[in-house]
Amino acid sequence: MGKHLKSFSGRLTRTIIIIVLVIMAIVSLLAFIVTATGLYTSFKRHFADAIAGMSQSITANLEKVEISAANIADEVSWHVSSPEDVISALGYEIEVNRNLTGCGVGFVPDYFPSKGRWFEPYASFTGDGPFVRDIGGASHDYHSSEWFTSGLTSGKGVWSKPYIDDDGAGTLLCTYSLPITDSLGRVVGVMGADLSLLWLMYLLHDIDVRENSINLMPALFGKEDLGVYSFILGPNGEYIAHPDRSRSLKGESFFDYADDSGNDKYRLLGESMCKGETGADAVKMDGRRYSVFFAPVSDSGWSMALAVPFMSLLGPALLFGSAIL
Predict the structure, then answer these.
(1) Is 313 within 8 Å of 43 (Cβ atoms)?
(2) pLDDT tens digits for 280-315?
(3) CA-angle at 33, arms to 27 and 36, nearest 5°
(4) Residue partners of 99: CB distance under 8 A and separation at least 6
(5) Could you tell me if residue 171 is left (phi over 0), alpha (psi between -120 and 50 degrees) or otherwise beta?
(6) By the 8 A CB rule, do 50 and 306 touch?
C-alpha cells in the first residue's frame, strides 16, 4: 500500500512539474512573441515616421523653388516685349530669390530677330551681385534640352532629371520649368529655375548617418553592408539621388536593376513609388533583403525611400525578445 502511494505521489509530482514547465514555456513564448512583435512594430513605425518627415522636408524645399519660379515666370511674361527687359527682370528676380542656383529663359527660335535663333539669358548671383549672360548658341542648343522641351509641351511646371549644367550653373542640378507666354497667350519660351542637388545629397547623407547611429545591427556586428540608406526616384524611376552618385549622373533607372533582383517584388516596388504611393515593401536589392519605406515628394513626381536591411529591422526585435526567455 505504501509503495503504491509513493508511486502515485511520484507520478503526481512529475506531472505537476511537467505542467508547470509547460506553463512557464508557454508564458515565456507568449512574452517573447509580445516583446518581439512590439519592438518590430515600434521599429517599423519609427522608419515610417522618418520617411514621412524626410519627404516633408524635401517637399518644403522644392515648393520654395516652385513658388519662386512661378513669380519669375509671371515677371518675365510681362517683359517679353524686348530682350533688354527680360534681362533686367531676370537680374532683379535672382537677387530676391537667393534660394535658386540660377534661373534663365530659353526662347523659341528667332523670337527676338536681333538675337538670332538662340536667346537664353541666364541669371546667377555672385559675390558682386546678380550676373546675367546669354548662354544660348549652336554649342549649347537648349531647344533639344529636356527642361526646354518638357516646359513647352507640359502646360505646367515640371521637374527635369538630374544633369550637370556646364553652361549655366556648372554643377549637378535639377531644373523646374514653366512655359512663358506673351500678351496673346502664346508660348514663346520656357523659364527654368535651377536647384543644385548638392544640398539634397548632403541631406540624404545626414539622414543615413542619423538612422545608422540608432541602427543596432551594424553596431553589434560591425558590418557596414547592413547600413540603412535613402534614395529618391523620379516619375519614371530615374535616380534623382542615391548613395552611389554615378547612378544619377549616368541617368540610370531603378528598373535597370530589376533583372538582378531575382523576383517581381522589386519591379512592383518601383511601380508603386512612381505612382506616388506611400507604403513599405520587403524586397531584395543589390543582393540583400531590405524593408523599403517610401513616400511621394510634393507634386514633383519624385518619391523618397528609406531602405532598411531586413535583419536590422527584425534582428533587434528577436534579440531583445530572446533576452526574456
Answers:
(1) yes
(2) 888 888 778 888 889 998 777 889 998 888 766 554
(3) 135
(4) 64, 65, 68
(5) beta
(6) yes
Q: Is 269:281 a contact under the CB 8 Å cutoff? A: yes
Q: What is the pTM of this model?
A: 0.73
Distance, in Å, from the CA atom of 228 to the CA atom of 285, rounded to the nearest integer, reads 12
What residues form DSSP beta bridges with 295?
A: 304
Q: Which long-range contacts (CB under 8 A, 24 or more apart) does 305-308 make?
A: 305/51, 305/230, 305/231, 305/232, 305/233, 305/273, 306/47, 306/50, 306/51, 306/54, 306/207, 306/211, 306/228, 306/229, 306/230, 307/228, 307/229, 307/230, 307/231, 308/47, 308/211, 308/215, 308/228
Q: Which three cell numbers stand for residue 82?
A: 524686348
Instruction: Tell me the three cell numbers of residue 67.
Output: 513658388
Among candidate residues 98, 68, 102, 53, the one with its CA nearest the CA of residue 297: 53
